Amino acid sequence: MTGSVGVSCGRSFRGNPTGLQMKKLLIVITCFASLHLVACASRLHLVHKIDVQQGNVVTQDMVNQLKTGMTRSQVQFIMGSPLVVDTFHQHRWDYVYYFKPGYGEPTEQRVTLLFNDDSLASITGTIHPEASVIAAGEKRGPVTVVVPPYERVEPGLFNKIWHWITFRTAQES
Asked: What pTM did the predictor assign?
């Protein structure tokens, strides 16, 4: 065996050196592509997660409009129908708003209104009327709503591939 070339697993390196190099290159490319995909998955958001909204939308402006002594119909005009009305406690209305964005932390807002006969007696919960509004008893002027300009979100990787395959642009879909 002095004149023979090294043999590994019955194959000669001398006979097909490019085949072994190709296998090594294929393994390296596969590992690199897998690591790259995992590393970019958190940034690309390959899976779409929807925003979940449940309950009544409760804002600070709505709570600021509430005053003790208001009737149930006045409160319902401002706040909308309560989410929870307990049949055993007719004097208590609960407004609950839960928002869970697709990527982010969920938030929950609660407002509990207690009535004495037909008039609003107290307001408790995570949103309280602002002290300046309660003390001054002032009426707020008209509310100006500012709508931000439409911000175009760049389409994702799979969306780009789909548009490339179907020969369309993102605006055509």
From this structure: 0.51
- On the question of pLDDT at 136 being above 50, the answer is no
Cα separation of 101 and 106, whole Å? 6
- Residue 55: pLDDT over 70: yes
3-state SS, residue 104 = coil
Which pLDDT belongs to residue 134? 47
Output 3 or 79, whichever has higher pLDDT.
Answer: 79
Compute the distance between CA of residue 71 and CA of residue 67 in angstroms, rounded to an integer.
Answer: 10
Closest Cα partner for 94 from 115, 119, 74? 115
- Look at the alpha carbons of 13, 14, 15, 16 in this order and tell me if their dihedral is positive or negative: positive
**Do the beta carbons of residue 113 and residue 66 sit within 8 Å?**
yes
Nearest Cα neighbor of 113 from 150, 70, 161, 171 is: 70
- CB atoms inside a 10 Å sphere around CB 120: 19
CB 33 within 8 A of CB 40: no
pLDDT at 9 over 80: no
Q: How far apart are CA 143 and CA 65, in angstroms?
A: 12
